[in-house]
Amino acid sequence: MQCSRLFPAALIVAALFLAACQEAGGPDNPTPGPEVTRSAPQGPPRALHLGLGLQPTEETHDAYVSAFANAARHADLVSIARVPPWEEFFPGAEVSEETHALMQLERDLVRQYDLSLLFAIDPTDGAVQRTRIAGLPEGAPTEEGFLREDVQDALVAYAIYVVTNYEPRYLAVGVEINMLRARSPEQFRGFLEAYRQVYDAVKEIRPGTRVFPTFQLEDLLGRLTQAHPPQWEAIEAFGRRIDALGISTYPYLSSSIQLVREIPADYYAQIRARFPGEILITEAGYASATIEGHSWVGSEREQEQFLGRLLEDAEANGFSAVVWVAERDPVLSRQGGAAVLNDVGLRFSDGSDKLAWAVWTEWVRRPLPGTAEAN
Question: What's the mean pLDDT in 210-214?
């Protein structure tokens, strides 16, 4: 199965809308987004936090701000995933105005909408099943990757920048990192050394930030592109430097699951059996349509059934959060391997609802204990 760019990092590049960022945010305008109103709470309380990935329908400033506003209406938490701008954090380098402007905009929007933030530092390349480092400047020897001391230093410096400026509730360092471990063990060892430094540095600055890597469930179970026994030992490699277990899940991409009803009964319960602490589904998706050249059967009904199943299982097993990868489909279809993510939104690109949206909004309306809407 073609797996290039199945799990992309941020779709927004800072330079794309630098001028708009500088106009929208800043000390003179701390509320760069539109006012929003949430629906009145309804139904039994829930302990499960619901999050949306910040995947805008288009690569524009307005679409990005709209993604935050929509999350404020329909979620408790937002997820930003980003490849580090390595060249800005190598020893002796300076952070660019573009990176500062983007940070300021995102920080102001999170604060304006009183959202919890999961910031995922995503340093590996999804286009090659995360077998190598992503985003190194042109001319850099990518084959050395995480074995380079300056790369390790840059990862630590970027993590410090993120945690100091964004003050996220959750900091994921390494996305779907079990794929790197299984395919490039030497690179994983270099990453693990850098991760340990990141963890210790972040805890010195903000002890309350939850720091952890994320794992790709279908690959962890040997159900993605490489058939193998489950590799739960990948979690153990992080020892005590893991504050929560982050999991991404796309069962429709599995080599052995064609329909939602074929997902084993203990598919998500087995995660709880392997980890006693906090568990988050940091990224989840299911296609609402089929794509030519791929084997699975995608439909709105299947997506609706999967979302209901996922939320029920997460709540039953005491997970703290579920983050759906995108509220809406992109306006322009992605090509190549990334096409498998074209239809994972819970709404169409024009904002009209898919069947699964009713499931999501029903859960969102349920009040969270201890919040204003629960009182």
Answer: 98
Task: Give all strands (DSSP E) within the chain, no chain letters.
Answer: 49-53, 77-82, 116-121, 170-173, 210-212, 214-216, 244-249, 278-284, 321-324
CA distance 81 to 119: 6
DSSP conformational letter for 146: G
Strands of the sheet containing 170-173, edge to edge, are: 210-212, 170-173, 116-121, 77-82, 49-53, 321-324, 278-284, 244-249, 214-216
Beta bridge partners of 347: 328, 353
* Residue tagged 């042109």 (tokens): 138
Round to whole Å and give the CA distance between 25 and 30: 6
∠ CA 311-48-116, rounded to 5°: 120
What per-residue string of b and e applies to 116-140 under the rule 16 or more CB within 10 Å gives b?
bbbbbbbbbbbbebbbbbbbbeeeb
pLDDT, one tens digit per residue, over 116-132 is: 999 999 999 888 889 88
Asked if 351 contacts 362 with a C-beta cutoff of 8 angstroms, the reply is: no
**Tens digit of each residue's pLDDT (9 = 90 or more) over 47-95:** 999 999 998 888 889 999 999 999 999 999 999 999 999 999 999 999 9
- Global confidence as pTM: 0.91
Rounded to whole angstroms, what are the CA distances from 279 to 17, 121, 159? 35, 18, 21
In the chain, what percentage of residues exceed pLDDT 70?
Answer: 88
Of 176, 162, 262, nearest to 219 (Cα)?
176
Q: Report the relative pairing of strands 214-216 and 244-249 from DSSP bridges.
A: parallel
Q: What phi and psi values does residue 252 have, to the nearest 5 degrees?
A: -70, -15
**Alpha helices by DSSP H, 56-184:** 61-74, 97-112, 149-166, 177-183
Closest CA relative to residue 218, chosen from 164, 262, 160: 262
Kindly indicate whether the domain formed by 14-374 is annotated with CATH number 3.20.20.80: yes
State how far the alpha carbon of 329 is from the alpha carbons of 80, 120, 158, in Å: 17, 21, 30
